Every structure is written in C-alpha cells, then in structure tokens.
Amino acid sequence: MTATSTTTPEAGPTALHSPVIDWFDQHARDLPWRRPEAGAWGVMVSEFMLQQTPVNRVLPVYEEWLARWPRPADLAAEAAGEAVRAWGRLGYPRRALRLHGAAAAIAERHGGDVPKDHHQLLALPGVGEYTAAAVASFAYGQRHPVLDTNVRRVFARAVSGTQYPPNATTAAERKLARTLLPQDDTTASRWAAATMELGALVCTARTPSCGGCPIADLCAWRGAGSPAHEGPPRRGQTYAGTDRQVRGKLLAVLRESHRPVERAVLDAVWHDPEQRARALTGLLTDGLVERLPDGRYRLPGTA
Predict the structure, then answer these.
(1) Is 47 a known active-site residue?
(2) Which of 47, 173, 197, 290 is catalytic?
(3) What is stated as this protein's family in its record (predicted)?
(4) 164-207 pLDDT, tens digit each
C-alpha cells in the first residue's frame, strides 16, 4: 500500500466500526447538544456554531442561545440583528444570519419543528450538505455520511494513508465515507459521532495521540511510517490586521449599543480609513449591518 492509495482494512470497513464506537462509548465528552433534551434544534444550533470554532468558545454562547430561544419560532420572532448580537465573538457572524433564516423557514414551513427529512433539511436557507447530514444523523439517528474536518482527517490517515485530507471535500472522500458507513441507522449514527470525536480528541491535526487511538494497528498512515504531507503547505489563518479583525471591531460596537450608532463612533475603532471603509461596506453587503437614512448604523432590524 502506498501513502497515496485509498484502501480499506483487510477485514473490510466493518473492522473499524467496533473499536471506534467502543472507544467513543468510553471517552465521549458530555456536551449539551448530545443530551436527549437538546432535541433537533439544539443539535442544529450547535452545528452552526461549531463550524470553524472550538467547543470551549461555543459552550457559553450555546447555553445562552438555547435559554433565550429554546425553539426555532422563538428566534424567528426576533430581528435578525438580535441573532448577530447574541452571536457575540464566535466569529464568522454570517452564520448567525443563516441560522436565523433557517429558524424562520422552519417556523413557516414545518410548524416550528426541525424537519427529519434530509432533503427538507437541505432546502433550509444556510443549511448545506454537512449540516443536513449532521442534524439528520445526530438528532434523528439516520444513516448519512457526516464529513467534517475531523472525520475527513481520520479517514485520510486511517484508510487513505495520508497525513491530511484535501483542502476541500472531494467526490472520492464522499465515496469513501459511504463505503465506511455501517448499514443500520443506529450504528451509522453512532459511527458518525465517534469518528468526529476521534478526530477532535486523538487524531488531531498537529500532534495525533496514536498511542491512545483504538485503530492505531489498522491505520494506513501509521503503517506506512506516518509520511509527511506532500501537498500544498497548510497555513493557519491569520487574523490580526485583517479585514476580518476590523469587521469584528465594528460589529462589537454595534452589538454593545442598543441604539443606532453614529459613523464617527465606528471611525474610532480602526486607524486605517480605507480598510475601515472596506470592512464596513462588506458588513453592509453581507446584511450584517444596516445604514439608516440619517447616516447612522445598526444591526439589521433592531431598534
């Protein structure tokens, strides 16, 4: 087997199922969205929040969000800007607008209940392939391949023999995920959660803990001598000094104010007028900020 081949263990894909799921049964974190009382809405909220954001940052915002908006209709009844305000500093605040849009659609089309049907989930605004599969699997115990960054990395190493997956999900990865998916719904749902947790806690990006991995002996990457990544350099995302940082500073002012804000107040948050104007224009274009006729600014739909 070469480091670039895609294979399954000699015993077949089922050889991975039991050790990974048994490990998960012993080591899964007690996260609020995994508890029965979270329901499908709690799962959906968590999936939106966890995109590109670590669990420890999500937990307090998630708890506050569900306390304020325990059902989709509760969120839908509020202005979209209140979702942006409650999003706080989780980053990528367009996710808040998308979650608000999904909540409105759920309230309008599905009687306020997160739909079970995978196609109906996909039809919700802001819900893509990954989120629909995750909600269907984790909330409703259905059989769907769930491919987040952690799962893709586990599959890349354990089965394909490469250190990292491609930058974007490929058709080959989707095919592999379907091949590895257990046949019955219950086991498939558990497998999805277990592989995600394995990638988050053990098969991590920088320093995988192979000694604690339940499938270390079956891992193609480890068996090949853990060859180094041969693709394009994987650079971490920068933040300081970027338009993202400026957007965050502008939004922070608007989140903290419960009345429209003068332009001069926004101008005070960043020294570079060109970059500041570009960031503000981006926020307006994305619908995260509204400009009133008198020249003041506010979060969308707020007082």
Answers:
(1) yes
(2) 47
(3) Belongs to the Nth/MutY family.
(4) 999 999 999 999 999 999 999 999 999 999 999 999 999 999 99
